[in-house]
Amino acid sequence: MPYRRLVDPSTHRYAPNIVACGFGTAPARLISELATHEQSGHLAPPHLDPHRAIESYWQALARNIIATGRSLLDGRPELAIDPPAGFRLAHEVV
Predict the structure, then answer these.
(1) What contacts 73, CB < 8 A, 6 or more positions away?
(2) Cα–Cα distance between 44 and 56 in angstroms, integer?
(3) At residue 82, does pLDDT exceed 90?
(4) Residue of 84 and 29 predicted with greater confidence
(5) Residue 44: which residues within 8 A CB-CB, separation 6 or more?
(6) Closest by alpha carbon to 80, among 53, 62, 57, 93?
(7) Which of 43, 47, 58, 89 is 20 to 30 A (C-alpha) from 19?
(8) Type and span of the H or E element at 31
(9) Using one digit for the tens of pLDDT, what is the confidence trace for 28-76?
(10) 58, 17 in Cβ contact below 8 A?
């Protein structure tokens, strides 16, 4: 499967970390399978307006990218993935 090869660090030196987020009726299983780590798959609260959910998620993602960059500069490479308040981990919903 091409996806598994892409995210496998043993076959792809620069394997990406994929963050997945579901809104509305997105299936939790799909979001969980797309995310490369359990902490990387998130579901927006079902009652949240999709526009507001996307806005909240992008703001959180921007903060996470900045935090990850700072950790790299500090010599502590850590992937920071903190979803906005109210978002759930997809793997816990499955």
Answers:
(1) none
(2) 9
(3) no
(4) 29
(5) 21, 22, 23, 24, 50, 53, 56, 57, 86, 87
(6) 62
(7) 47
(8) helix 28-34
(9) 999 999 999 899 999 999 999 999 999 999 999 899 889 888 888 888 8
(10) no
